[in-house]
Amino acid sequence: MDHLRFKVAIGAALGAVVFHATAAGPRTTETQVLDAARAVLDERAGREGWADPQFDLVLQRPREPVLPCQSPLAVEPVDTRQLSRLRFEARCADSPGWTQSFAVKAAASARVVVAAVALAPGRTVASGDVTVERRDITAVPDALSDPAAAVGQASRRALRSGDVLRTAWLAAPVLVKRGDAVRIVAQRDGITVTVAGEAQEAGARGAVVRVRNSGNGRIIRARVVDAGVVQPADL
C-alpha cells in the first residue's frame, strides 16, 4: 500500500475545511484514520490560534496488512504531541479484538509573526520590528500569530531578521533594574504620596520587588507599575 496523502486547508474567513486527496474511492480504513488526524489538527489550530493554517498529511505504511472492516471505525488518538508523528489506534465494531495502530506524518504551515529586523536580547519589540509571513510551523507550534502579542514584549535572545517569533522567546520588558532610582507612589482615599526609593532587584510590570525608601532607609515590598515607578505591595 502506498502512502496516502491528504492536503487540508482551513479558510481564514469562514473556517471552512477543504480536502484534496490524491486517491479517490470509498471511506477506507486509511481515509478514516486521516480524517481523525485532520480533526486533531483542526482542534489544535483553533486552540493555539493559528492564522490560516494548512496541513499536509501522510499516512505511514503500517507494519502489518490493513485488516478489512465493514463498519465505521473508532479511531482514537494515542500520541499527538509531535506533528511529525501522530499515532492513532483503530477499532472495528464488527470484529471484537480487531485493533490496528497507525502513524500519520503531518506538516503544518500558517501565517506567523517574524522579525523584520535583527533584535538584540532585552530589546522591546516595536510595531515596525515585526511582520507576518507564511512559514512551516511543524517544529515551532508556539509561533506567534498576532503581531500585537509581540509588540511591547522584550526578546529573551538575539533574533535575526526573518526569524519566527515564539512565545518562549518573549517576556515582559524589565521596567526597573537593581540600583535604579524609583518613585514610590502610594494612593489611598484620594490622597497620593510620592517618595524616592532605590530598587534592590529588577522587575517587569506587575512584579513585586524589594525597594529601599530613601527617606527612612526601610526596605518594602513594592509592585512595578511603570518604568521607574512602584507602588507599595501591601496597599
Mind explaining what this structure looks like?
- 10% of the residues lie in helices and 44% in strands.
- With 235 residues, it is mainly β.
- The strands form 4 sheets. Strands 1, 2, 3, 4, 5, 6 and 7 form a 7-stranded antiparallel sheet that branches. A 5-stranded mixed barrel has the order 11-12-14-15-16. Strands 8-9 form a two-stranded antiparallel sheet.
- It starts with a strand and ends with a strand.
Secondary structure layout:
Blueprint: E1 4-10, E2 17-21, H1 29-48, E3 51-59, E4 73-79, E5 86-92, E6 99-115, E7 130-136, H2 147-150, E8 154-155, E9 170-171, E10 174-176, E11 181-188, E12 191-199, E13 203-204, E14 208-213, E15 219-226, E16 229-232
Parallel strand pairs: 11-16
Antiparallel strand pairs: 1-2, 1-3, 3-6, 4-5, 5-6, 6-7, 8-9, 10-13, 11-12, 12-14, 14-15, 15-16
Order of helical and strand elements: EEHEEEEEHEEEEEEEEE
Coarse structural class: mainly beta
Strand content: 35-45%
What is the rounded distance between the termini? 70 Å
- Radius of gyration (Å): 26 Å
The overall strand count is 16
Shape: elongated
Give the helix tally.
2
Arithmetic mean of pLDDT: 86
Low-confidence regions = 1-25
Largest sheet: 7 strands, antiparallel
Q: How helix-rich are the residues, as a percent range?
A: 10-25%
Keywords:
disordered N terminus, elongated, 2 helices, single chain, 235 residues, five-stranded mixed barrel, mainly beta, seven-stranded antiparallel sheet
